[in-house]
Design a protein that fits this description.
The chain is mainly alpha-helical. The chain folds into 2 domains: 1-65, no CATH class; 72-161. It has helices at 16-27, 34-46, 48-63, 73-100, 116-127, 134-157; strands at residues 6-9, 12-15. The model has no long low-confidence stretch (mean pLDDT 89).
């Protein structure tokens, strides 16, 4: 379970095969109560990370043309470094984009009757300071956590090369 296409079912991201299976069970009359549907949803939710890993592992092996029998610690380190580079790069783009939201051009409607400093103060009063913005803080923390996660895994397996 977890291989193949996934679908978004009103916020529940799940393997399409499992949603199709649920629909078939409803159509056949095997499932007739809302509580039974909720139980299937709860099970899909509870198994999300296992199913996600099944999907990701399959994609990793396929993309890097590896098999469970041939993958090495060096392969894993290479994949983790590429993953970390991608995640951090994306987060840095998000951070950069967020910084634009706090630029002078976005402060146009603030402090309209004042000077540049008053516009900036009015903007900060309404929107807050960039370095204290919860989204910005979360993005920076995400970068830090992902770098640490990658480094920890590489440290753990680097002696297996």
């Amino acid at each position: 379970m977890g291989l193949g296409e996934w679908v978004d079912l009103s916020g529940l991201i799940a393997p399409k095969t499992e949603i199709d299976n649920l629909l078939n069970r409803i159509e056949s009359g095997e499932i007739t109560r809302l509580q039974e549907i909720n139980e299937v949803f709860a099970e899909l939710h509870a198994n999300y990370y296992v199913n996600e890993w099944t999907w990701a592992w399959d994609k990793i092996l396929s993309f890097y043309q590896l098999t469970p029998d041939t993958i090495t610690a060096a392969d894993v380190i290479r994949i983790v470094k590429k993953w970390e580079e991608s995640v951090v790069s994306l987060d840095e783009m998000i951070y950069s984009d967020a910084r634009k939201e706090f630029s002078l051009s976005f402060k146009t409607g603030f402090g309209a009757d004042g000077n540049i400093q008053e516009k900036a103060l009015d903007f900060e009063y309404v929107r807050g300071a960039f370095d204290k913005n919860p989204f910005v803080i979360t993005t920076l923390k995400h970068i830090e956590v992902k770098k640490a996660l990658g480094a920890e895994l590489i440290e753990r397996i680097s002696h297996l090369r």
